[in-house]
Amino acid sequence: MVKEDSILASIRGILRDIYNKCILGYNYFVRIYLVLDIELWGILEGLAIAIDRGFHRVFILSGSQEAVQVTQWSDSKVSMSTLVKRINILLANLAHWSILHVSKDLIIERLIV
């Protein structure tokens, strides 16, 4: 989830187990102005935390269709960015991963539950 203001953006996420039980949440403030970059940083941070915690399978829900697309496909200019390359390196370390675009309302609901 991304919250924008004039100076900082907040990157937030929640890690849940297969039973939808909350494992941990994270919240970072960054100085990035492009919404796509903020969404990608959120994915990167969540992946890094999951891998550090020993997860081998990850299911990512994102409110950004563009972030999902550049993470899945490597033929766009954005996918050549260092940020996307770092995400792909982390994804390659997982036994299984999946990413899905969902409405921001569903993401907010999952953050609250």
TrEMBL record:
<dbReference type="InterPro" id="IPR036397">
    <property type="entry name" value="RNaseH_sf"/>
</dbReference>
<dbReference type="GO" id="GO:0004523">
    <property type="term" value="F:RNA-DNA hybrid ribonuclease activity"/>
</dbReference>
<dbReference type="GO" id="GO:0003676">
    <property type="term" value="F:nucleic acid binding"/>
</dbReference>
<dbReference type="InterPro" id="IPR044730">
    <property type="entry name" value="RNase_H-like_dom_plant"/>
</dbReference>
<dbReference type="InterPro" id="IPR053151">
    <property type="entry name" value="RNase_H-like"/>
</dbReference>
<dbReference type="Pfam" id="PF13456">
    <property type="entry name" value="RVT_3"/>
</dbReference>
<feature type="domain" description="RNase H type-1">
    <location>
        <begin position="3"/>
        <end position="104"/>
    </location>
</feature>
<dbReference type="InterPro" id="IPR002156">
    <property type="entry name" value="RNaseH_domain"/>
</dbReference>
<protein>
    <recommendedName>
        <fullName>RNase H type-1 domain-containing protein</fullName>
    </recommendedName>
</protein>
